[in-house]
Amino acid sequence: MSFNQKIDGFLLKSWNYSPYNYSELFKKTAGYSKKHLKIKNHTSERLFNLMIATENKSALDYYYWNNKTLYLISNKELFDDFEKSFQNSVILSKNNLQQKKSLRLFYLRNIPRFNKETRDIVMSD
User: How far apart are alpha carbons 91 and 122 in whole angstroms?
Assistant: First the structure.
C-alpha cells in the first residue's frame, strides 16, 4: 500500500501525538513483526519512521533500541545513530544476561565500527 507524502507526514505527526509508542506496531492486531524491519522496503522504512516518531516515549525500553539497531544493521545504515542505539541497548539490557551476552558478542565481531566510549560501555561489568 502506498500513500502520498502528505498522508505519510500526517500519519507521523498524529502518531507522535498519540498516547501509543512503537510497541503498538508489533502487536498481533497491527500485524507487524521484527522480520518486517529486516527487509529493506517501503514498509520497513515506514515502520522505522513511526518508531523514530515515538522515540521519546520509548527511551527506557531496551526492546525499542534493539529493534532500532536491528533495522539499522539490516539496512546497512551504520552511522552515529547506530552507535547511540547500540549503546542504549547495552545499557538498558544490563540485567538481561542473555541479551547482554549477545550484544557483547556482536561488539566483539565488529570492533572496528565502534569508538572507545562504546568499548567502555560494553566491556564494563
Answer: 8
Domain that holds residue 110: 5-123
* pTM of the predicted protein model: 0.69
How does pLDDT run along the chain (125 residues), one tens digit per residue? 444 555 556 666 666 666 666 666 666 556 667 777 777 777 778 778 778 877 877 788 778 888 888 888 877 766 667 888 889 889 988 888 898 899 999 999 988 888 999 999 998 86
AA letter at 88: N
Return the residue matching grid coordinates 551504520.
78
As for how many domains the chain has, the answer is 1
Q: Using CA atoms, how far apart are residues 25 and 2, in angstroms rounded to an integer?
A: 18
What gap in Å lies between CA 108 and CA 87, rounded to an integer? 14
